[in-house]
Amino acid sequence: MADLLLHSMSNFKEIFKDILVIMKPRMIVEIGCEYAGSTFQFLEYCKNNNAFLYIIDPSPFVDVDEVLKNYKGYYQFIKEKSVDALQIIPKADLYVVDGDHNYWTVVSELDLIFENNIPLVILHDLGFPWARR
Question: What number of other Cβ atoms are within 10 A of residue 10's Cβ?
Fold first, then answer.
């Protein structure tokens, strides 16, 4: 399903591949997985590079554990709001932020991400029309 969505981050798989190859992150956090389109790419990287992915989404459109059952041990799904979840997981090397698009949430996520940490952060669709809430 994610491949059919024009707004899906899975459309950026070539860019993500380059980032992962160059950066070699050991821990990745994905905020907002929707249909888990880009999640598969991050998990393939984790599986092949002994890395780990935290997936944060309070209301994904799929049963995450069922869809990702072939990747057990390489991820942890957290069905919480990002601002709450970011306070309980370890700091990561790479963050992919594509969850709630309102100003307060994104700023709060970034404050938590950059607290005692200097990772690479990828932000998706933060401008018009997505930020008009």
Answer: 19
CA gap 110, 97 in Å, rounded: 9
Please, are residues 82 and 56 in contact by the beta-carbon 8 Å criterion?
Answer: yes
Q: Which two tokens stand for residue 82?
A: 């990002």
Tokens of 117: 């940490």
Q: From the centroid of its chain, how far is CA 16?
A: 11
Nearest residue to 86 via CA among 70, 97, 74: 97
User: pLDDT tens across 27-61, in order?
Assistant: 999 999 988 988 999 999 999 999 999 999 999 99
* Model confidence pLDDT, tens digit, residues 53-103: 999 999 999 999 999 999 999 999 999 999 999 999 999 999 999 888 788
Tokens 């072939």 belong to which residue? 70
CA distance 8 to 58: 18
CB atoms within 10 A of CB 79: 13
What is the C-alpha separation between 94 and 19, in angstroms, rounded?
10
Distance CA 89, CA 116 (A): 13
Q: Which amino acid makes up residue 13? A: K
